[in-house]
Amino acid sequence: MNDPIRVGVLGLFHPRQIVLSATPGKPLECMSADKRWPVEDRLELQLAETSIRMLLGTHTSLVASITCNDSQGGQAEFTVTVPGKISRRYVGKVEIKPQPRELIIVIEMDLEIAVASVVEAESPPHAPLEALKAQAVAARHLCPRTGAMRPLPLRVKPVACARRQRPAKTRADQLSLPA
Predict the structure, then answer these.
(1) Is 138 helix (H, G, I), strand (E, B) or coil?
(2) How far apart are alpha carbons 67 and 79 in whole angstroms?
(3) What does the pLDDT read at residue 162?
(4) Alpha carbons 66 and 19: distance in angstroms, whole number
(5) Is 86 helix (H, G, I), strand (E, B) or coil?
(6) Helix axis angle, 129-142 relative to 158-165, nearest 10°?
(7) Beta-carbon neighbour count of residue 80 at 10 Å?
(8) Opening angle at CA 76, ends 57 and 83, nearest 5
(9) Is 178 helix (H, G, I), strand (E, B) or coil?
(10) 3 state DSSP class of 46
(11) What are the tens digits of pLDDT across the range 69-108?
(12) Contact 92, 76 (CB under 8 A)
């Protein structure tokens, strides 16, 4: 993976339950501690206090956290669904950890895939090519300076990343910075 970046996804929905679905014909393997589970169809994950309840077919387990990849440690293609709310396809590695009120989902992906995702999410359907190029430049060069894109927001605007890079000049600027 070239220039990997870790991105928190779907945090806006505060998911207590998610479904990981394998892309047909593509390997997806999930692991926790020393156990491994090949996912051929779907893996249901539910918050269970400080653990994750994992349902795979007829198999149920309680695990502390789950990491999934292509079974060789590389990027996998998969879909993450928050039932009744949203479904998104990703290419990368995924890590799911429980928090007191939600599951935290972090995708490790190539920087260029992250840039394309940000540009697509933040641009109107018929945005001019020059606007898309500007959005890509901002996402590519400003967000990674923090070491990772913000871990929880669903949508990270490159403009917000740019503002985090500059020190606030006035009290009003400090109040308008993203938390």
Answers:
(1) helix
(2) 14
(3) 35
(4) 13
(5) strand
(6) 40
(7) 23
(8) 50
(9) coil
(10) strand
(11) 999 999 999 999 999 999 999 999 999 999 999 999 999 9
(12) yes
Q: pLDDT tens digits, residue range 126-165?
A: 899 999 898 888 887 766 555 444 433 333 333 333 333 3
State the Cα–Cα distance between residues 22 and 3, nearest whole angstrom: 24
Cα–Cα distance measured from residue 142 to residue 106, given in angstroms and rounded to the nearest whole number: 20
Tokens representing 30?
A: 């999930």
Count of CB atoms situated within 10 Å of the CB of 65 = 15
SS3 of the chain: CCCEEEEEECHHHCCCEEEEEECCCCCCEEEECCEEEECCCEEEEEEECCEEEEEECCEEEEECCEEEECCCCCCEEEEEEECCCEEEEEEEEEEEEECCCCEEEEEEEEHHHHHHHHHHHHCCCCCCHHHHHHHHHHHHHHHHHHCCCCCCCCCCCHHHHHHHHCCCCCHHHHHHCCC
State the pairing for strand pair 103-110/51-56.
unpaired
| Pairwise CA distance, residues 53 & 45, whole Å | 6
The amino acid present at 177, given as its one-letter code, is L
Alpha helix stretches (DSSP H) within the chain: 111-122, 129-142, 158-165, 171-176
Domains of the chain, by residue range, sit at 4-176
Nearest CA-CA partner of 141 in 123, 127, 162, 121: 162
Is residue 53 helix, strand or coil?
strand
Q: In the structure encoding, which two tokens stand for residue 150, read together? A: 């913000």
